[in-house]
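Please decode residue identities from the backbone states below.
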């Protein structure tokens, strides 16, 4: 099931700072998202995207995952910590990057995720990180 139009409602980020273009599937504790990179994408340097930016893509995927599962009051995710990250290669322009995230556990408003970014069979990055979810009213009142 594809929800390309839904990403705008799930994330406050807008291009060029949005690193998730498509929600492919959310099922149970897992979510699959895609980042579509055109060959002339302005986020590329010499035809490639740094794997460091893919950690941001995974964090945005986690925020979109959580927001897609919450009904009623609007919530936003804020990256609280990157607990570990491993980098294997840069994403190439002209290809889709698959972003797979898994919700590992939660501690109140804090949710721990793990994620992997790949391009075809090629691993690009993996990370474990924590996202804090606040309702829009809590963010406004702060």
């Amino acid at each position: 099931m594809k929800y390309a139009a839904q990403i705008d409602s799930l994330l406050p980020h807008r291009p060029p700072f949005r690193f998730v273009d498509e929600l492919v599937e959310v099922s149970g504790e897992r979510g699959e998202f895609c980042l579509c990179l055109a060959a002339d994408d302005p986020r590329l340097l010499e035809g490639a995207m740094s794997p460091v930016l893919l950690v941001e893509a995974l964090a945005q995927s986690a925020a979109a995952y959580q927001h897609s599962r919450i009904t009623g009051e609007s919530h936003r995710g804020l990256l609280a910590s990157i607990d570990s990250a491993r980098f294997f290669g840069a994403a190439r322009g002209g290809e889709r990057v698959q972003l797979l995230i898994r919700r590992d556990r939660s501690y109140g408003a804090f949710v721990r995720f793990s994620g992997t970014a790949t391009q075809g069979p090629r691993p690009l990055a993996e990370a474990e990180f924590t996202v804090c979810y606040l309702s829009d009213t809590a963010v406004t009142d702060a």
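Observation: Residues 110 and 132 are 4 Å apart (CA to CA).
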